Amino acid sequence: MTVEFFIYLAIGSLASGFVNGLAGLGTALFAMGWWLQVMTPVEAVAVILVMSLVSGVQGMILVWKSIDWKLLGKFLIPALVGIPIGLRLLSYINSTILVTLIAAFLLIYGGFFSFRKHLPNLTRKTPVIDVSVGFIGGILGAVGGLSGVLPAMLCSMRPWSKMKQRAVLQPFNFIVMSLAATMLAFKGGYPISTIKIMAISFPITMIASFIGIQVFRRLNDDQFRRLLIIMMLLSGVILIVKEYFL
Fold first, then answer.
1. pLDDT single digits (tens) 61-112
2. Cβ contacts of residue 33 below 8 Å, gap of 6+?
3. Cα gap 238→26, rounded to integer Å
4. 173, 148 Cβ separation under 8 angstroms
5. Cα separation, 124 vs 116, whole angstroms
6. Where are any strands of DSSP class E within the chain?
7. Is residue 103 exposed (0-12), middle (13-18) or buried (19+ Cβ within 10 Å)?
């Protein structure tokens, strides 16, 4: 491992750990661009899945008592169906088209609401949308660790407290990533070389996640919702940069 490798690994670990601690998602979005500079795509996805879990442990402890399992199930059960589909699609899907479509959606949504005075206010029940978001989130989680993108977008549209939003996003991501990582492990996605990379990333990610959680505690409900929307915009920019310029 070269000095350049350690630098890119550390930057990705710091960025993704902090964002996951802050918002309960974002590991893939904020690490992939850095890690793909020094890792193969398979290595990067394998490390991202596990680092999403280790950085999410502190967040799970934070939200555990606030989890509404009935509400979470509306997203999670469809996601469980989507995960194996996503793993199968890895061999066939055109990643450039997928990333471009997701990025365009994020840029439009994040760009529109980031600079508006009033936040979106979706109060009616949307069972079909909830199921669809969960299902697609499961597919995206398996394809590239992007399970939290659509659930975060939907949560940011609802006038929920920051803890209620996080109590959906954090366990959703944690469980989807756990299953995707387990399935990838059975397919041989974690050789010794990848485990060594994770061992280096682990302490950096955990420290950054702890700092992110401390910042989260200081945000009010509206600030957290606006943070999620701004993250959508930044995520769209990062995806485009990663796909076309790195």
1. 999 999 999 999 999 999 999 988 887 876 676 667 766 777 787 787 778 7
2. 12, 238, 241, 242, 246
3. 11
4. yes
5. 21
6. none
7. buried
Characterise 188 by phi-psi region: left (phi > 0), alpha (psi -120 to 50), beta (else). Answer: left
Q: Which amino acid is at 119?
A: L
Report how far residue 24's alpha carbon sits from residue 44's, in angstroms, rounded to the nearest whole number.
19
The rounded Cα 92 to chain-centroid distance in angstroms is 22
Tokens 């492990």 correspond to: 185
Query: How many CB atoms neighbour CB 118 within 10 A?
Result: 6
The answer to whether the beta carbons of residues 221 and 27 sit under 8 Å apart is no
Q: Give, as one character, the DSSP assignment of residue 117.
A: S
Taking Cα atoms as reference points, which of 29, 56, 16, 22 lies closest to residue 201? 16
Provide the residue type at 223 as one letter: Q
Q: What is the mean pLDDT of residues 26-33?
A: 76
Nearest to 193 by CA among 29, 37, 44: 44
- Report pTM: 0.79
Longest pairwise C-alpha distance within the chain:
53
Kindly list the distances between the CA atom of residue 226 and the CA atoms of 29, 97, 107, 115, 231, in Å, as whole numbers in the listed order: 18, 28, 15, 10, 8
SS3 per-residue string spanning 72-130: HHHHHHHHHHHHHHHHHHCCCCCHHHHHHHHHHHHHHHHHHHHCCCCCCCCCCCCHHHH
